[in-house]
Amino acid sequence: MTRYPKSGKGTRWTVAELKSIPESWLGDTVADGDGLTGEVRVSSGGTISVRFKSAFKWEGKVTWHQCGTWPSASMADVRAQRDQARQLLKQGVNPNDHKKVQRIDSRLEVEARLADARRHEAEDLTFREMFEAWLADGVSREDGNAELRRAFERDVLPAIGDKPVRLVDDSDLRAALRRVGRDRGAGRTAQRMLSELRQLYRWSLSRKPWRTLVADGSPAELVEARQVVNDDYEDGIRDRVLSDAEIRELHEIQVRLRSTYESLPAGHRYGGVRPMKRENELAIWIMLATLCRAGETMKAEWKDVDLQKAEWFLPAANTKTKVPMLVFLSPFALRQFEELHLLTGHTPWCFPARPSGRVREGAQPPDRHVHEKSASKQVGDRQVRFMSREGSLDHRKHDDSLVLANGERGVWTLHDLRRTGGTLMQAMGVPLDVIDRCQNHKLPGPKVRRHYLHHDYANEKRAAWNRLGQHLATILSAAASSKQVARKGRSRGARTTTATGQVLAGAE
Fold first, then answer.
1. What are the b/e assignments for 333-355, b being 16+ CB within 10 Å?
2. Dmax over Cα atoms in the chain, in whole Å?
3. What single string gives the DSSP state of each residue in 399-424?
4. N or C: lower Cβ tally within 10 Å for the chain?
């Protein structure tokens, strides 16, 4: 049914009349005059609306042009749509086609604006966002990138983290690294971070959206290593090797510190010089005798140590090269593990972490190994003359009790033990390829050689480790003999076990 305004056919509907349309008119047609008609609609909630359209003839056919729906569109806009359609017809343009073009143009304009906004947003991506993307997808360190994040959040991100990548240049990177290498005196750290920055930019140069932001190349390549350290910084790879005399001295220091500390009367030990934990002392000799890395040693589990066969298996997950290794323990190395087993054999770990909670409150047994850098920090804390520290750190030692050779040859580290052991093997005539295998190095040479040659060098490695252990035992036996002579007649002192398995009388 067609409905007309109260004023009659050919007149316009008023807003008040449209608002008074009842639900019973659902589906009826309302004629607004001058070719404009609308269909009454009722929503599920009872809301009335009218969809208006006007008819026109195109290519001999009657076609409808949608003019809008009241009340979403006002009647003025609806009638304007009809009038515009008539103007287009006079110009020979199909109003429906014109509306399609307008929709397309509108969509393209929106897409262009969005693309422009995305482009501007991409252009303003910050160095911090690039760094986070690199951590997520471009680098994977064994510690979950924790140390990498810590270093950058301390020294780089506060300075340039919020700066757009496209604006970061070599002067920004140089200034950030100089605060590390020059102001703080951490030259090695600064040069390592420069290497990591170069790695970050190499990754970014081949990936969207970063490659467009660094199209001019990596600014890190314009920074030279010498520019971020002090003029007196001595660059180069560590080549510290402990001499036989220093190995002997290290053993004597351990024995003396432990003996002196244990002989202190009750209540006086707090003020004495506390030695390293015995487990970490044993770790030093294990690393020296097996050439294993500190991290590999700290992760050791008793299920992988066979004291009967004198073998220690290092699973791939624990090694730096991700290649499993079987270490044949020399009698010297076996003695260290046997004493260690007396200390920690009740736990799954050779070097367990501290129990959780207080002992007097029923501490829980350790559920993981000690931190990989625990022993390294204990060694460094006892050579503070070589450290750039202002005062002691909380819950850390701060003395020079492990300085060797009066400090004339500089600081020594746990990794130097691995180099020392390998050098001792070399001096004894052990072939270099056998030493490489004892150190579980990634072997050089063509891939085809590694593919076809599968001799495991078990006998050669066992012999090499045994020769090294025998040499170490000889060094420490000489030290023990000299001490026994010096301590003759002082049998009442504390009993102290040496690294060779001998029991010495400690000083009273």
1. bbbbbbbbeeebeebebbbbbee
2. 134
3. S-TT--GGGTT----HHHHHHHHHHH
4. N
Mean pLDDT for the stretch of residues 9-17 = 90
Instruction: Look up residue 491 and give its two tokens.
Output: 């049998």
Which of the residue ranges 43-52, 84-93, 245-254, 267-276 would you say has the lowest mean pLDDT?
267-276
The CATH number of domain 127-228, selected from 1.10.150, 1.10.238, 3.40.50, 2.50.20: 1.10.150
CA torsion, points 136, 141, 143, 146, in degrees to nearest 10? -50
Is residue 255 classed exposed, middle or buried when 0-12, 13-18 and 19+ CB atoms within 10 A define those classes?
A: buried
Amino acid at 420: T
For the domain 2-121, what is the CATH code?
Answer: 3.30.160.390
Residue 337, both tokens? 């593990």
The reported pTM is: 0.61
**316: CB partners within 8 A, 6+ apart:** 322, 323, 324
Superfamily for the 250-505 domain: Intergrase catalytic core (1.10.443.10)
The Cα-based distances of 375 to 12, 203, 392, 396, 428 in angstroms read 94, 35, 17, 12, 29
Q: What is the pLDDT of residues 54-83, one digit of tens each?
A: 998 888 888 899 999 999 999 999 999 999
Q: What average pLDDT score do residues 334-341 get?
A: 96
With H, G, I as helix, E, B as strand and everything else as coil, classify residue 207. Answer: coil
